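Researcher: Re-running this chain for the archive, since the previous output was lost when a drive failed. Same request as before.
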Amino acid sequence: MYIEWKPGLSGHARIGRVRKSATGKTIYYMDYVLTSLKGAGYKANFVDEESGMQFWVSNCRKDGNDTLYPGVVEIDPNAQEEYWTRIRRIPEKSHLTSFRSAGKYSKRRPC
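Model: Regenerated structure tokens:
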């Protein structure tokens, strides 16, 4: 999953494995217990129960433009091979631990 810490419009972003509760309203990532904001967050959809920090959590995009604005996305070592081979379908890049996302709202447009 794509996980971004949201101190503002953009923050530190990672690709990593998460565990979901049976209802899907709680996500477990590393030491974080993230509960759904049920649509109440601004550019965030989950909150850490302990710290109150907000996060955006979503499925990874095939084109790599997971961030809203340009930024670097780090990939957890245990998700690295699967990310590059199954999601992005670029197995020759499976050695990379990060990449630069152009962002969903990038000013770059295809010709």
